[in-house]
Amino acid sequence: MYNTDIPRRAELPTSAQLTRSTLIAMASAAVILVTIVLPSEYAVDPTGVGRMFGLTQMGEIKAQLAGEAEADAIAMEAASRPAVSLSEAGQQQTSNEEMAQRIDQLEALIRQQQAPQQAAPQMPPPLAQQEEAVQAPPAAIAAVPAEPAPVEAPQGRSDSGSFVLTPGQGIEIKLVMQQGARANFSWSSVGGPVNFDAHGDGGGQSISYEKGRGVETDQGVLEAAFDGNHGWFWRNRGKQNVTMSLQVSGDYSAIKGLP
Questions:
Q1: How far apart are CA 243 and CA 162, in angstroms?
Q2: Which CATH architecture has domain 155-256?
Q3: Which among 226, 222, 223, 221 is positioned nearest to 206, based on CA atoms?
Q4: N or C: which end of the chain has fewer CB within 10 A?
Protein backbone atom coordinates (compact mmCIF):
# COMPACT_ATOMS: atom_id res chain seq x y z
CA MET A 1 0.00 0.00 0.00
CA TYR A 2 1.27 3.44 -0.93
CA ASN A 3 0.79 6.13 1.61
CA THR A 4 1.01 9.76 0.51
CA ASP A 5 2.86 12.21 2.62
CA ILE A 6 0.89 14.85 4.44
CA PRO A 7 1.55 18.20 2.73
CA ARG A 8 3.28 20.83 4.73
CA ARG A 9 1.53 24.08 5.65
CA ALA A 10 3.70 25.99 3.23
CA GLU A 11 2.51 23.79 0.36
CA LEU A 12 -1.20 24.45 1.00
CA PRO A 13 -2.93 27.27 -1.02
CA THR A 14 -3.51 30.46 0.85
CA SER A 15 -6.90 32.14 1.29
CA ALA A 16 -6.00 34.73 -1.33
CA GLN A 17 -5.17 32.02 -3.85
CA LEU A 18 -8.47 30.22 -3.19
CA THR A 19 -10.42 33.47 -3.53
CA ARG A 20 -8.67 34.29 -6.80
CA SER A 21 -9.37 30.80 -8.21
CA THR A 22 -13.03 31.09 -7.23
CA LEU A 23 -13.39 34.50 -8.88
CA ILE A 24 -11.69 33.22 -12.06
CA ALA A 25 -14.08 30.22 -12.18
CA MET A 26 -17.14 32.46 -11.68
CA ALA A 27 -15.97 34.88 -14.37
CA SER A 28 -15.36 32.01 -16.80
CA ALA A 29 -18.83 30.57 -16.13
CA ALA A 30 -20.43 34.00 -16.67
CA VAL A 31 -18.60 34.44 -19.99
CA ILE A 32 -19.69 30.98 -21.18
CA LEU A 33 -23.27 31.69 -20.10
CA VAL A 34 -23.48 35.06 -21.91
CA THR A 35 -21.60 34.13 -25.09
CA ILE A 36 -22.65 30.49 -25.65
CA VAL A 37 -25.54 29.21 -23.52
CA LEU A 38 -27.95 32.16 -23.78
CA PRO A 39 -27.58 32.67 -27.58
CA SER A 40 -27.77 28.96 -28.48
CA GLU A 41 -30.67 28.03 -26.15
CA TYR A 42 -32.78 31.19 -25.74
CA ALA A 43 -31.69 33.44 -28.67
CA VAL A 44 -30.48 36.07 -26.16
CA ASP A 45 -27.23 37.63 -27.38
CA PRO A 46 -26.28 40.78 -25.41
CA THR A 47 -22.66 40.78 -26.65
CA GLY A 48 -23.20 39.89 -30.33
CA VAL A 49 -20.63 37.07 -30.16
CA GLY A 50 -23.32 34.40 -30.47
CA ARG A 51 -24.64 35.79 -33.77
CA MET A 52 -21.08 36.01 -35.09
CA PHE A 53 -20.63 32.25 -34.60
CA GLY A 54 -24.22 31.30 -35.62
CA LEU A 55 -25.37 30.41 -32.09
CA THR A 56 -28.13 33.04 -31.97
CA GLN A 57 -29.75 31.66 -35.14
CA MET A 58 -29.77 28.24 -33.51
CA GLY A 59 -31.55 29.65 -30.46
CA GLU A 60 -34.12 31.44 -32.63
CA ILE A 61 -34.95 28.17 -34.43
CA LYS A 62 -35.36 26.36 -31.09
CA ALA A 63 -37.65 29.09 -29.74
CA GLN A 64 -39.73 29.08 -32.94
CA LEU A 65 -40.13 25.29 -32.86
CA ALA A 66 -41.15 25.39 -29.21
CA GLY A 67 -43.74 28.11 -29.91
CA GLU A 68 -45.18 26.20 -32.87
CA ALA A 69 -45.40 22.98 -30.87
CA GLU A 70 -47.29 24.77 -28.09
CA ALA A 71 -49.65 26.45 -30.58
CA ASP A 72 -50.30 23.14 -32.35
CA ALA A 73 -51.09 21.43 -29.05
CA ILE A 74 -53.57 24.17 -28.11
CA ALA A 75 -55.20 24.01 -31.56
CA MET A 76 -55.53 20.21 -31.46
CA GLU A 77 -57.05 20.35 -27.96
CA ALA A 78 -59.60 22.95 -29.10
CA ALA A 79 -60.46 20.95 -32.22
CA SER A 80 -60.98 17.71 -30.24
CA ARG A 81 -63.82 19.29 -28.25
CA PRO A 82 -67.27 18.21 -29.51
CA ALA A 83 -68.84 20.83 -31.76
CA VAL A 84 -72.14 20.99 -33.58
CA SER A 85 -71.72 21.54 -37.30
CA LEU A 86 -73.73 24.14 -39.20
CA SER A 87 -75.65 21.47 -41.09
CA GLU A 88 -76.70 19.69 -37.86
CA ALA A 89 -77.78 22.98 -36.27
CA GLY A 90 -79.80 23.87 -39.38
CA GLN A 91 -81.54 20.47 -39.41
CA GLN A 92 -82.37 20.78 -35.70
CA GLN A 93 -83.83 24.26 -36.21
CA THR A 94 -85.87 23.06 -39.19
CA SER A 95 -87.25 20.11 -37.18
CA ASN A 96 -88.29 22.44 -34.34
CA GLU A 97 -90.06 24.78 -36.78
CA GLU A 98 -91.89 21.88 -38.45
CA MET A 99 -92.99 20.50 -35.06
CA ALA A 100 -94.32 23.93 -34.04
CA GLN A 101 -96.27 24.19 -37.33
CA ARG A 102 -97.85 20.74 -36.78
CA ILE A 103 -98.92 21.71 -33.24
CA ASP A 104 -100.52 24.91 -34.59
CA GLN A 105 -102.36 22.90 -37.27
CA LEU A 106 -103.70 20.42 -34.70
CA GLU A 107 -104.89 23.22 -32.39
CA ALA A 108 -106.64 24.94 -35.30
CA LEU A 109 -108.33 21.67 -36.30
CA ILE A 110 -109.56 21.12 -32.72
CA ARG A 111 -110.94 24.68 -32.54
CA GLN A 112 -112.77 24.18 -35.86
CA GLN A 113 -114.37 20.97 -34.58
CA GLN A 114 -115.41 22.52 -31.26
CA ALA A 115 -116.77 25.84 -32.70
CA PRO A 116 -120.04 24.46 -34.27
CA GLN A 117 -120.82 22.50 -31.11
CA GLN A 118 -120.56 25.60 -28.92
CA ALA A 119 -122.59 27.87 -31.26
CA ALA A 120 -125.54 25.56 -31.98
CA PRO A 121 -128.12 24.75 -29.21
CA GLN A 122 -128.01 21.30 -27.73
CA MET A 123 -131.03 19.58 -29.36
CA PRO A 124 -131.48 15.87 -29.90
CA PRO A 125 -131.26 14.88 -33.59
CA PRO A 126 -134.22 13.25 -35.34
CA LEU A 127 -134.77 9.54 -34.89
CA ALA A 128 -133.72 8.78 -38.47
CA GLN A 129 -130.44 10.61 -37.99
CA GLN A 130 -129.85 8.73 -34.72
CA GLU A 131 -130.32 5.41 -36.52
CA GLU A 132 -127.95 6.51 -39.30
CA ALA A 133 -125.39 7.63 -36.70
CA VAL A 134 -125.59 4.22 -35.00
CA GLN A 135 -125.06 2.41 -38.31
CA ALA A 136 -122.41 4.79 -39.74
CA PRO A 137 -118.75 3.99 -38.98
CA PRO A 138 -116.84 6.44 -36.78
CA ALA A 139 -115.23 9.37 -38.56
CA ALA A 140 -111.63 8.86 -39.51
CA ILE A 141 -109.15 10.80 -37.47
CA ALA A 142 -107.22 13.33 -39.49
CA ALA A 143 -103.84 11.91 -40.31
CA VAL A 144 -100.88 13.77 -38.94
CA PRO A 145 -98.09 14.09 -41.48
CA ALA A 146 -95.12 11.92 -40.57
CA GLU A 147 -91.83 13.51 -39.73
CA PRO A 148 -89.49 13.69 -42.71
CA ALA A 149 -86.58 11.29 -42.75
CA PRO A 150 -83.28 12.86 -41.73
CA VAL A 151 -81.31 14.13 -44.67
CA GLU A 152 -78.07 12.21 -45.07
CA ALA A 153 -74.86 14.09 -45.64
CA PRO A 154 -74.18 14.57 -49.35
CA GLN A 155 -71.54 12.33 -50.88
CA GLY A 156 -68.87 13.79 -53.09
CA ARG A 157 -69.30 17.37 -51.90
CA SER A 158 -66.74 20.09 -52.55
CA ASP A 159 -65.72 23.36 -50.87
CA SER A 160 -63.26 26.13 -51.58
CA GLY A 161 -62.24 29.43 -50.06
CA SER A 162 -59.44 31.91 -49.48
CA PHE A 163 -58.29 33.78 -46.40
CA VAL A 164 -55.43 35.99 -45.19
CA LEU A 165 -52.90 35.08 -42.48
CA THR A 166 -51.13 37.99 -40.83
CA PRO A 167 -47.55 37.52 -39.51
CA GLY A 168 -47.59 34.97 -36.69
CA GLN A 169 -51.27 34.05 -37.26
CA GLY A 170 -52.43 30.43 -37.54
CA ILE A 171 -55.68 28.75 -38.68
CA GLU A 172 -57.07 25.20 -38.60
CA ILE A 173 -59.58 23.72 -41.06
CA LYS A 174 -60.99 20.22 -40.54
CA LEU A 175 -63.17 17.81 -42.57
CA VAL A 176 -65.67 15.55 -40.76
CA MET A 177 -64.90 12.11 -42.23
CA GLN A 178 -65.62 8.44 -41.61
CA GLN A 179 -62.85 5.87 -41.41
CA GLY A 180 -61.49 5.08 -44.86
CA ALA A 181 -63.12 8.14 -46.49
CA ARG A 182 -60.98 10.02 -49.01
CA ALA A 183 -60.88 13.69 -50.00
CA ASN A 184 -58.85 15.42 -52.70
CA PHE A 185 -57.20 18.67 -51.63
CA SER A 186 -55.11 21.47 -53.05
CA TRP A 187 -53.86 24.56 -51.22
CA SER A 188 -51.41 27.36 -51.99
CA SER A 189 -50.07 30.54 -50.40
CA VAL A 190 -49.41 33.89 -52.08
CA GLY A 191 -47.06 36.35 -50.39
CA GLY A 192 -44.73 33.85 -48.75
CA PRO A 193 -44.43 30.24 -47.52
CA VAL A 194 -46.19 28.82 -44.44
CA ASN A 195 -45.68 26.03 -41.93
CA PHE A 196 -48.35 23.32 -41.90
CA ASP A 197 -49.39 20.20 -40.02
CA ALA A 198 -51.89 17.72 -41.56
CA HIS A 199 -53.44 15.71 -38.73
CA GLY A 200 -56.65 14.15 -37.41
CA ASP A 201 -58.43 13.55 -34.10
CA GLY A 202 -61.64 12.01 -32.80
CA GLY A 203 -62.89 9.38 -30.39
CA GLY A 204 -59.85 9.79 -28.16
CA GLN A 205 -57.48 9.15 -31.07
CA SER A 206 -55.06 11.47 -32.86
CA ILE A 207 -52.70 11.12 -35.83
CA SER A 208 -50.23 13.30 -37.73
CA TYR A 209 -50.21 12.71 -41.49
CA GLU A 210 -47.58 15.22 -42.63
CA LYS A 211 -45.69 18.32 -41.47
CA GLY A 212 -43.85 20.98 -43.45
CA ARG A 213 -41.92 24.22 -42.95
CA GLY A 214 -41.64 27.00 -45.49
CA VAL A 215 -44.06 25.43 -48.01
CA GLU A 216 -46.02 27.46 -50.60
CA THR A 217 -48.32 24.77 -52.08
CA ASP A 218 -49.40 21.17 -51.59
CA GLN A 219 -51.97 18.79 -53.07
CA GLY A 220 -52.98 15.16 -52.81
CA VAL A 221 -55.53 12.82 -51.22
CA LEU A 222 -56.40 12.83 -47.51
CA GLU A 223 -57.64 9.43 -46.25
CA ALA A 224 -59.19 9.27 -42.77
CA ALA A 225 -57.53 6.75 -40.47
CA PHE A 226 -60.58 6.73 -38.15
CA ASP A 227 -63.92 8.49 -37.61
CA GLY A 228 -63.38 12.12 -36.66
CA ASN A 229 -61.99 15.46 -37.83
CA HIS A 230 -59.15 15.47 -40.32
CA GLY A 231 -57.46 18.49 -41.92
CA TRP A 232 -54.67 21.06 -41.68
CA PHE A 233 -53.18 23.71 -39.42
CA TRP A 234 -51.28 26.54 -41.11
CA ARG A 235 -49.16 29.30 -39.53
CA ASN A 236 -47.57 32.33 -41.18
CA ARG A 237 -44.05 32.78 -39.76
CA GLY A 238 -43.13 35.47 -42.28
CA LYS A 239 -43.09 39.24 -41.86
CA GLN A 240 -45.92 40.06 -44.32
CA ASN A 241 -49.50 38.94 -44.94
CA VAL A 242 -50.06 35.67 -46.81
CA THR A 243 -53.21 34.87 -48.83
CA MET A 244 -54.19 31.20 -48.62
CA SER A 245 -56.42 29.34 -51.12
CA LEU A 246 -57.96 25.92 -50.39
CA GLN A 247 -59.98 23.53 -52.56
CA VAL A 248 -61.32 20.20 -51.22
CA SER A 249 -63.71 17.61 -52.67
CA GLY A 250 -64.61 14.09 -51.67
CA ASP A 251 -66.37 11.93 -49.12
CA TYR A 252 -66.88 14.17 -46.06
CA SER A 253 -70.03 15.40 -44.32
CA ALA A 254 -68.97 18.86 -43.12
CA ILE A 255 -66.06 21.31 -43.08
CA LYS A 256 -65.05 23.26 -39.96
CA GLY A 257 -63.07 26.47 -39.68
CA LEU A 258 -63.29 27.65 -43.31
CA PRO A 259 -63.82 31.45 -43.22
A1: 7
A2: Sandwich (2.60)
A3: 226
A4: N
